[in-house]
Design goal:
The protein is α+β, with helices and mostly antiparallel strands. The chain has a single domain, classed as Glutaredoxin. 45% of the residues lie in helices and 15% in strands. The protein has seven helices and four strands; from the N terminus they run βαβαααααββα. Strands 2-1-3-4 form a four-stranded mixed sheet, sandwiched between helices. β3 and β4 form a beta hairpin. α2 crosses α6. Belongs to the ArsC family. Pfam families: ArsC. This is ArsC family reductase.
Length: 116
Amino acid sequence: MSVTIYGIKACDTMKKARAWLEAHGVAHAFHDYKSMGVEPAQLAAWARQVGWESLLNRAGTTFRKLPEDAKADLTETKALALMAAQPAMIKRPVLEADGRLVVGFKPEVYARTFGG
């Protein structure tokens, strides 16, 4: 099984998700989209799979600090552009596992994803 987890290295939720994967013996690659970025085409593909609303981290500091006009009247195009420009606005983690996509970390969802 090919597994890649996307996020930001210093994020507490990322640390919990990676620790869960390691504790359950799930080999995975890690992509730090704060340092490595994320391709707009990949964001668009994720949005098609789970919806852009699921990807956008509205609770994070980066989003909350945006000017009101940047947050107003969000569309998929506008939200994807914001996330591409500032990857900290992407909800963490994003987990790709053999074509499946899981956004966020909940141990029970990971257990179902990996059959554990």
